[in-house]
Amino acid sequence: MSQISRRKLITTGLAAAAGVSGLVAAERIARRYGLIPPDSSGFYGPGETLTYAAQRLITTHSLAREFPRSMISKAPFANEVDKVSDEFKRHQAANFSDWRLAIDGMVANPVSLSVSDIKSLPYRSQITEVVCEEGWSYIAEWIGTPLHEVLHAAEILPQARYVVYYSIQSDWWESIDMADALHPQTFITWGMNDGDLPVSFGGPLRMRIPRQLGYKSVKYIVRLTATDSLKRFGKGLGSASPEGGYAWYAGI
Amino acid sequence: MPVVASPAKTETPRHAAFVRVTHWLTVVAFVALLITGGEIVISHPRFYWGEIGNVNTRPLFIIPIPSSRDMVPTGYKYVMPDQNGWSRYLHFQAAWLLVFTGAVYLIAGLGTGHFRKNLIPVPGDRTPRAHWRRIAQYIRRVPPDASEIRSYNVLQRTTYLTVIFILFPLVIWTGLALSPGFNSAFPFLVNVLGGRQSARTLHFFVSGALLLFLIVHIVMVAVSGFWTRTKPMIIGRPASIEEEP
């Protein structure tokens, strides 16, 4: 009887050791392949890591659904933003002629581009859905310069693993990994439904990432920073969202 | 009570260990999903059908509660506190727990013949009539047959099979269909539901069906003796054995 329980004990011990070393190995591999999100610490870390890793394994190259022109929403909803700053109002009064988008960090050629500079780069349009974490959604046509065009104009370095982007509004910044940064549907958006991008929808320049929830699509962007680590940005959780209690990866 | 006579040591447990463990893990995951799901609904208590829906479009129906967002026209002057951040983190973490628990349960259930032995109604019971007979027995409050001490009756079996093989897969599917990342890889899983907002509405209704099951389940357990029913789900052996002198 005691021998059986000893055998059981040894088997259980071995299984536990195998389990722990398996987890450690899995963690190493996940880190190596960039499957750990920056907000992976804390109580919700395991769930967040599983979601991000699973989606990265299956969605790296997949395209967000695009819709026929007939499905463009007649009355899209411009989500409210905090009161715009005086600086923004000055730009608005000048019709955004002095608006600049700076690209810095891990790039060989840091540049500062005007809205017309960006419009002169190759551009695309997509009819995709804006999906808010609250549950509502709408479809619009978005016209913009794919982010990878802008990053290549700045000669992004191969070591870069994330792109951090900032709104002119204070404390509004996000970041994405290279899978999303180089994704063909990730746009520096400047047009909507065949016109200029209205201010209420993020004009003059808005990030659009249709494979993630709306809160990653920051409005009024003025700066992009390429980096190999998010530790030095803000509290090191990846972006302003996790600092406010929301997940960094918003593909779900 | 012939079962009482057999010694406890050689008793086969009323519920197998894997059933007990996965049952309580499912309880933890489901309660977390229910609470956080409710919190997330509060940020937009309007439901739509089709691909899109927002405050500028006509809802299918509205839940008449205040919202945690001031842009939702609810008729209340009160705006609830925003709880979506942790609710979303916990919702998805609990969803993973549910999926892993479900996988263990399915594998163990197939391996041990649990579904065949304990859940699929016995041959004579696979008729609507057998179900009606058991419902009538409930209504007339006739005490359960001796066979029910050791196994589930036909209504339980059909209900559990529905919950395990229809409602849970549906709630996972409709939930996944709300993920923009997942949808990019498997667009047909949202398209066949009629679009994103249809998926959200269906997710809400399937969750409601699961909540209804939870309530009826707890009521039935309570009515038939809360501890005599709950103890075997914790320790495995029927409570009566321990209580007998």
Textual characterization of the structure:
The complex is a heterodimer of chains A (252) and B (245). Chain A is an alpha+beta fold and 252 residues long. Chain A has one domain: Oxidoreductase, molybdopterin-binding domain (Sulfite Oxidase, Chain A, domain 2, Alpha-Beta Complex), CATH 3.90.420. Chain A contains seven helices and ten strands. The mean pLDDT of chain A is 94. Chain B has a two-stranded antiparallel sheet with strand order 1-2. Residues 1-8 and 241-245 of chain B have low confidence and may be disordered. Chain B has one domain (2-25, 93-243). Chain B has helices spanning 2-5, 17-42, 84-112, 114-119, 128-139, 154-176, 180-185, 188-191, 196-223, 226-235, 239-243, and strands spanning 46-47, 61-62. In chain B, helix 2 packs antiparallel against helix 3. In chain B, 27% of the residues are buried. Chain B is built from eleven helices and two strands. Chain B is mainly α and 245 residues long. The interface between A and B is large, with 41 and 39 residues.
List the SSEs and their pairings:
The complex is a heterodimer of chains A (252) and B (245).
Chain A: H1 2-32, H2 45-59, H3 86-93, E1 100-105, E2 111-114, H4 115-120, E3 124-131, E4 137-146, H5 147-153, E5 162-167, E6 173-177, H6 178-181, E7 187-192, E8 195-196, E9 206-208, E10 221-227, H7 240-243
Parallel strand pairs in A: 1-10
Antiparallel strand pairs in A: 1-2, 3-4, 4-7, 5-6, 5-10, 7-8, 7-9
Chain B: H1 2-5, H2 17-42, E1 46-47, E2 61-62, H3 84-112, H4 114-119, H5 128-139, H6 154-176, H7 180-185, H8 188-191, H9 196-223, H10 226-235, H11 239-243
Antiparallel strand pairs in B: 1-2
